[in-house]
Amino acid sequence: MDAWPLLLASTLNAGTLVALAALGLLINERAGVVNLGAEGMMLMAAIAGYAATVHSGSDVVGFLAGMGAGALMALAFGLLVVLLNTNQYATGLALSLFGAGFSAFVGQDYTRATLGPRPGFAVPVLSDLPWIGPALFRQHPLVYLTLLLAAALAWWLARSRGGLVLRAVGESPESAHALGYPVRRIRLMAVVAGGALCGLAGAYCSVVYTPLWVEGMIAGKGWIALALTSFATWRAGRVLLGAYLFGGVTMLQFHLQGQGVQVASQFLSMLPYLATIVVLVLISRNESFIRANMPASLGKPFHPGA
């Protein structure tokens, strides 16, 4: 039974990486902006966070550097799509390709760099409980902060004035503009905030989850985070559920291999992505449900003078 607490603990760890990025993309899409550049932003944040941690010796500095890199790339994306009205999908793809290439270039000198000793974390008393202690209460603090962030974001979107304004911008920017709200500024702020969370996810990957730097280490998790927003029907709580589902399937392959299950490693490696595709196909069959939950202006540019 010792393997099962380990599986649960690793599921939370892996799910946190995807959840942070998906929550950032959720903010973007609630404002009506689709950002396909999550993969590139996370890669740039991963190398920025790793380099900052190597030179400073502080994980916090690494997280801040990752958030800054993600926010900066998101700002460039936002200026193009929100102010210059470029195509959101093409611009996002360009951002993702740029991030993948530039991170590989600047990260060449860090493939052999190493971080200092990794600190251990444990919640006093609770971490000593049998079975549940090792599984739930020996996680990095960012795991618990992600849970709080999802709860806070769900409340903010549903109950606060700012959240309702953001949703209004995503549903009907023309109406929000007529009421005097600065639609473009709100969208730009949402894009930058979402980029910062994607950056935090990238830094978490290279500083905590692995911890190391290799080219292309995000390995499609940015695309999975993008798919999770649809899977979650644009709800923060469901984003967590989807992220931990993906994390569980990802870690299950290593668990099965450790248990000696005779299955081709290539099949086990594709399980997380196969599960994501199956879930998206099942959800897409109910088009009315998707339309009822999807922001009405998602992916559509806004022209104040039109």
UniProtKB/TrEMBL annotation:
CDD domains: TM_PBP1_transp_TpRbsC_like. It comes from the Bacteria. It comes from Roseateles terrae. The keyword Isomerase does not apply. It is found in: Cell membrane. It is a multi-pass membrane protein. The chain crosses the membrane at residues 6-26, 33-54, 60-82, 89-107, 141-158, 188-210, 263-283. This is Simple sugar transport system permease protein. The keyword Membrane applies. It holds the Pfam family BPD_transp_2. Its main location: membrane. Keywords: Cell membrane, Membrane, Sugar transport, Transmembrane, Transmembrane helix, Transport. InterPro entries: ABC_transp_permease (IPR001851).
